[in-house]
Amino acid sequence: MSRRRLLQLSLAAATAVAVTPLSGCTAETRPGPPSPSARAGGRPTTRDRSIRLGDRLSEDLPYRVLEDGDGLERVVREDLADRPGGTRPEPVALAAFGHITDPHVLDATNPGRLSFLWQYLDFEEGYPTSGRFRPQDVLTVHVLDATVRAFNALGQGPESGRPLDALVVTGDLSNSFCTSELDAVVTALDGGRATANPVGRYEGIQDHGRSPRDLFADVWHPDPEPDGADPDNWKARYGFPTVEGLLDAASSPIDAPGADVPRFVGFGNHDETGRYGGSRISPGEQFVDLVRTGSRLPLELPAGMKEPDFWEQAKGGEADRERLLAELPSRTTTASEERDVFDKAAFRKALARSESAVEQPIEEDALYYSFDISPEVRGIMLNTASPDGSGRGCLDREQASWLVGQLEAVSGSYLDEEGNTQMSEAEDRITVLFSHHPLRSFEDDATTVDDGGESLARDEVLSILSRFPNLVLWLNGHEHRHRVEAHRGRNGSGGLWEITTASLIDFPQQSRAVELVDNRDGTLSILATLLDHSAADDVRRDGEQSPASLAALSLELAANRPGLDPGSVQGAAGDQNVELLVAAPF
To answer: Is the peptide bond before 508 cis (omega within 30 degrees of 0)?
Structure first.
């Protein structure tokens, strides 16, 4: 089937859809009272209201504006424990914190993205997009800032009313492991003038500068077309709006307040260069490094050159790569050394600060540590990014041994490797695990990675975690979707809840407020509530923009991605606003 025919079919399917709900699914739920956030005047959560797609912006094209919808019920899940009957004492909140993941803050003008190669991709989905380009790419800092502001405004657990203890971010903070992105993340979390664009103005393929038609057509250009110019496919076929001045507004720094509570940060595969300390850089990566900090924005391959030939030439020496870059038809852009690659030591110094940790290995590139979420709850942050730079989850035996030691240090009773109960004098603490990757991302079999460390198989990872009854929750991201899964304890009792939260760069751009509550009836409740960073009426498509309106527009753009299946990323109702019961371990 031709690409044109696929585009036609995709458009027809999108046009046939009526108002599309973006949150909430049909499921057996147990209604509860209005959330305290609404009663106490704090920021509303998705328990109070949801956001969905409403009317079309244009009568004959599928793009729809955001509108407010009803709040989402909370689903009680008793996969691991039943709620006892009878009169219950007043529950006690042990911790309340925010969970953010996958902000993918990126410098959309970085020439090292090699955006000129997108025009040679075959869009199998039938619409002009890919994992490389998103219309909201220029707005990632605004979304992270709006999310931090949302937690500041919320200020408390929406059900328990306990003041928030912390904000935890589980990796993929940057998109392309470059310093300008890292600096923007630090500033958005800690406060100050935040921008991921180191040159202060937009110079890239979303403006109306010189560009081949094939590349131009598959990229959304928010500014009005010059006289006589045809619009891109995003506008012509899908109805994406003209938002004059968006690129200028998005390129201006924002005054970020930073988080009101302590924040703890993890490492993701988009933060991992896969360079083994800089000693193993492929010729292709060396070419990207040459482009990323330079003053040339390549636009297309030289006449007659195919993409395989391009990469073959990039395998040559330094002089060959410089000659290849000079041969590429290009635009002039502003060079910046801030687009250079950061390493693990720089990430740790900027974000995974040792003074916030209860325990952290002394090595500068060790990006795992334990920390106190609250006096009652210990947190453990793992580094599950594979050192080869791939997307799989990875836990080597050295880090696994450290993890066991950390769990033993807060467990008065646990199982050894043979399943025998061990008693210790350690003070029992409820424990929460954090990582970028979910269990599903680990491989079936143990493998030996190129840096010489053996990584554990998926069942080995779960076997370790199931030995400790006070480890009740594992929070992660990576998959850009919401999912909640129960893992039973080794002896069939107790167990561990795993919560995967969607990303901030793709729809639904939500985070979670998480509360750990002792029900004082032999059970604990984990209350997880989705939080939107913006409201529907924050969106502006004309006039002066603000950081808040830009974040809201990012959500609307993400929600209108052609081919999007909202249910696949939102999950079912039992993956959204939930109360998860587990047996109290002590």
So the answer is: yes
Taking alpha carbons only, the member of 382, 582, 547, 348 closest to residue 466 is: 582
Kindly give the pairing relationship between strand 471-476 and strand 495-500. Answer: parallel
Tell me what percent of the residues of the chain surpass a pLDDT of 90: 80
- Residue 452 CA to residue 344 CA, distance in Å, equals 18
Q: Are 326 and 335 in contact (CB under 8 A)?
A: no
Q: How crowded is residue 340: how many other Cβ atoms within 10 Å of its Cβ?
A: 14
Out of 25-39, 234-248, 296-310, 354-368, least confident range: 25-39
Cα 251 from Cα 365, distance rounded (Å): 32
Sign of CA dihedral 531, 535, 539, 543: negative
**Two tokens at 496?**
């561990």
Closest-CA residue to 136 (of 23, 270, 250, 299): 250
Tokens representing 33? 């009272």
Sequence-ordered list of residues with C-beta below 8 angstroms from that of 309, at least 6 positions apart, any chain = none
Count of CA atoms in the C-beta half-sphere (13 A) of 12: 6
Averaged pLDDT for residues 498-506: 98
Report pLDDT digits (tens) over 315-370.
989 999 999 999 999 999 999 999 999 989 999 999 987 678 899 998 888 999 99
Pick from 229-243, 404-418, 486-500: least confident: 486-500
Q: Which residues contact 498 (CB under 8 A, 6 or more apart)?
A: 438, 439, 473, 474, 475, 476, 484, 485, 486, 487
Rounded to two decimals, what is the model's pTM? 0.92
Are the CB atoms for 100 and 504 separated by under 8 Å?
yes
Spatial distance between the Cα atoms of 190 and 303, rounded to a whole number of angstroms: 48
**Contacts (Cβ under 8 Å, ≥6 apart) of 93:** 157, 160, 161, 162, 515, 516, 517, 518
9 and 126 Cβ atoms separated by less than 8 Å? yes
